[in-house]
Amino acid sequence: MQTEEEKLEGISIEEEKKIKKISTIVMIAIIVIGLLITLDILLVSKAHVGPFLAIRTKVYDDGGTKEYYGLGYKVIKYNQKIGRRDTIIGSWSIKYDTTPTNYTLEDLAFSIINDNNNHIDEFIRLTGTIKKVDKSNKTLTLTYEDADGKYNLTVKAEVISETFKFNKNAPVSIIGIVNKYDNKTITISNAFAE
To answer: What is the percentage of the chain residues whose pLDDT exceeds 90?
Structure first.
């Protein structure tokens, strides 16, 4: 039983130890949960696997796009039959969006230089003329060259297609995700061409 002095002081030593134990356990749990969420986000964004700690809430009838909700984040794994095939991660407010930004080859070259935008991870539809066809790697190359050389641009599109029937100097429309920009060369992965 507590004496009058202990009651006046407030918390007993035993109660203080219990509070410290509980607060330590709570802090460790918060740190572990935070690390697990961070690891899940990194695995989705860098290794393109998962998410493991998020719940699938919706499957779209577009080829199999899936939407996941996690603690404070949302993942959309696009898998359209013809269109978007990438994974995006963000806050719960990100929206399902399968509308590409439209560019001609010339517009894209000007945008990169004038707007200082390399368009990485952007879903685009690009129209132009085929300059090179690599059937073994299923790659189409488009080039834009201006007189001064300031706006020169090469686009390499890695095409997903059962039949790869494209001809040099033919017009083409490419839909895909820009995944690399290096030395005036853009690479579009998981592209569809028509």
So the answer is: 52
The DSSP output letter for 122 is -
How big is the CA angle at 164 (ends 158 and 170), to the nearest 5 degrees? Answer: 85
Cα 42 from Cα 73, distance rounded (Å): 12
Backbone angles phi, psi at 32, to 5 degrees: -65, -45
Average pLDDT, the chain: 88
Asked if residue 79 and residue 47 are part of one domain, the reply reads yes
Same structural domain for residues 113 and 187?
yes
Helix (H) or strand (E) holding 125, with range, is: strand 123-134
Distance CA 177, CA 85 (A): 8
pLDDT in tens, 56-105: 999 999 889 999 999 989 999 999 888 888 898 999 999 999 889 999 99
CATH code, domain carrying 124: 2.40.50.140
Is the CB of residue 63 less than 8 Å from the CB of residue 44? no
Q: Are 115 and 160 found together in one domain?
A: yes
